[in-house]
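Supplementary Methods, section 5.1.

A reviewer requested that the exact input to the structure prediction be made available. We therefore reproduce it here, unchanged from the version used in the analyses.
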Amino acid sequence: MVMLLASLDQTIVSTALPRVIADLQGFDRYTWVSTAYLLSSTVTVPIYGKLSDLFGRKPIFLFGVVIFLIGSALSGASQSMNELIAFRAFQGLGAGALMPIAIAIIGDLFTPRERGKWQGLTGGVWGLSAIIGPTLGGWITQNTSWRWVFYVNLPVGLAAMLVLIFLMPTLRSTGKQVSIDYIGAALLILGTVPLLLGFSWAGSQYDWLSPQILGLFAVSLVASTAFIIYEARLERLGGQPIIEPSLFKNSIFTVSTIITIIFGMGLFGSIFFIPLFVQGVIGTSATNSGLILTPLMLTSIVGSVASGQLVSRLGRYKWVAITGMIISIVGSLLLLRLGLQSTNNDVLIAMLVLETGMVGVFVSLDLFLFLVFWEAMLIPMYFIIGVWGGANRIYAAVKFVLYTMAGSALMLVAILALYYRHGVATGTFTFDVPIVTRWVVPAGLGQNLMFLAFALAFAIKVPLFPFHTWLPDAHVEAPTAGSVILAGVLLKMGTYGFLRFCLPLFPDASLVFGPLMVALAVIGIVYGAWVSIVQPDMKKLVAYSSVSHLGFVMLGIFTLTPQGLVGGVLQMVNHGLSTGALFLLVGMIYERRHTRLIADFGGLWSVVPAFSALFLVVVLSSLGLPGLNGFVGEFLVLVGAFQTNPWLAALATSGIIFAAVYLLWLYQRVIFGAVTHEANRGLRDLSPREWALLAPIVVLIVWIGVYPTAFTGKTEATIEALIAQVQAKANVQRISLGPPTVAPGLRTPME
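The structure derived from this sequence is encoded token-by-token as follows.
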């Protein structure tokens, strides 16, 4: 509870600060609310550690909690910005005792073997606080008052005190001879505070070359020099300085410290200033400003886990650190480009970064690299939706990230489990996909759980019913370009994952859960079609139609028949063409009329005949008219489905009938009839640029429909090899230890 109290306070306050400024009128001291807290807590950490060695953990721990709670109450009651800064510094004096002594208590109470579990719990508390803190702070601020961001510490802290008093054992002091470096702490504060004041006041209250600013910098320089000299002398005399200067003789430690400081500035700067920007400039609510920080926190946690695994695997840290710095710099540059009038170039940059992540997903032959690219594409897509989207863009963007991250977390666990089990069984610890795929994972609970973890991540991305609810919001709020790339490529990452990983790695589990996946696919086909019929918004209608069409893809994959799988792969291409073209056409008409409501149109055939003609071709391809691409894919899927389950296949066929209902009814209301709105009479037809964009798509739609062999022929050999692999591995006698078990004649189908 104390760990939660300390870690949550560092993230919960940031989203409340814009309201604090509005209430207490202290924009020029904005950063000091957090700086004062962090400075006082940092300086007191080593002092509390040594005091706990002298007088025992429990009394010092309780003293820190009491100071922290008094500071929280005073901060919430502040009537001016200066009072709040002073009380935050006082609160930090207590916070310096909370986390380090809690970690020390774990070391005192548990054996080295047990400490790992409790230290993992500590990391989990930090992760939980990082994720929920900003949103919780925004929600409290929006629904009550910013003062309750501090008052909320009181009940949690009082409960923690009762636990400490009555349940925590009294640990004896260590008996160590320790000395407390009070002079060093004072010099550190004296060197830091004037420097911060100088940077805070320079250019606003005083000129950079004014005597006040130069005097502050001079005091900081003298105090910092004295601190370094005193700490070095204290270390030579065998004392215990706050910071041991000899550590900086190690170049790796020095460089790492400098990098940590620089990127810590960027991280905390983002945490403090992004809520201010989105609340003050964009006009977002406090709660949504907290949600905006969620991807930053989530990816930070995932990145730390991923980098740790990479360092452990490679044995080298340099390139992992350099890669992390490059990603951070790119993200910072993207943030620097944000403004009230962000340009199309900003969108294009985000799209290129997104494309890089998606291409990496499709070409990765390493499980961990696949996961890195899988996560990397979240960041640009979040900005595409959250910055350049519609009115509810923040909600849609955060929902997209949260859904994807939920599945990704379990997939990460499954990847690590697969890595470990393969290493134990074969003696080779590797993430290499072709090597791991040759090994037969023992059937049973382990394989089933790993399949479910992978399948959840992929089902969310497809999306498969009932994990589809993020998709309509993302499509509707995304700009046209975002909707097209989402439908055309990004959703296919999920179906690709089932083909590339679930089927070949977990064949028995694929057979066990295959009927469930088929049932969910059929439900998605019918459900998506029914919901599409009642949509008043054209873009939302197309979004729900994606749920229905991708249900056919999933149905084809889990028939495990040549016709079904070939049809599923072809339907992935068809969906990208037809639905992508529908989003383009809806976006084009929206640019002209600034509305997507079906009721606002009618009679467009006489106004924009070229647009209406291409719209008709795309609508017919989407509903599966013979001679166009949609028919071939859906027909092959249904042929495969009738071989495995005729009743479910018949139910899935109804989805085609319902598709004709919602698409033809849409076309009738938008294109046919009389022009009922005067604003529609002056609409311009397709421009040459729009013709150039749509013509290749229409050519491919007709080409696949008339001559599908040119496309199905490219996949038949791979599909046959995949089916043979699944069947061979499912029939092999499995073992959990010993040399790798490989099915006779087994090859990876995608080698």
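Residues 733-751 have pLDDT under 50 and may be disordered. These observations are discussed further in the main text.
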